Automatic annotation (TrEMBL):
GO terms for cellular component: extracellular region. Its main location: secreted. The keyword Cytoplasm does not apply. This is Uncharacterized protein LOC111102389 isoform X1.
Amino acid sequence: MKLIVGIILYCLFPYVRGKQSTQQKKLESLKSLIFNNAKATVTLNSTDLKQLLSLSTPTLGKANTAYSGRKIGFYVTLKSDMNYGKLQTVKFDNIFVNDENDSTCVFTCPAAGTYMFVVDVLLNKHTQLSLRLNKTSVARLYRDSSYSPHVQVSKTILLKLKQGDHVNVVSEYNNVFINGYLYSGFTGTFLY
């Protein structure tokens, strides 16, 4: 708890030590605080996380000019159970958020930067999916048939993207069955 309070105070109050520090000094102190308490659980709210990310960018808190304050993110799910063939793109057809993206099948990067993607699927048989960047697998989700009938499988990754890059989820096997009804989804968001 002391660690959490320390991080929050440090991020929100630049005058804690009596004078305003440079961004680099703040980042080094924050890194030290985290590394020295590596076995502790650190909880950051969204404001703290944004502050940490702004401190850790190579521009030391300067805005990404390609980003220009645009909102980039999406969260889509499957409306119903679906079957897919080998190398078929999974079409998430239930849109909750879709900022800066025209399709629910393939995310097209509108601005260069670092993005976080999450694939979360409910599977009921031997299955393999992949998250692809420009038709190249960058992460895989696998479900072995020896487990219980339904298994929730999830993968979270960070990717450095260039404008125009494509990211999508693809079935690696024939006859891949994915449960819908909000059990399976695909999320992506611009970080910095």
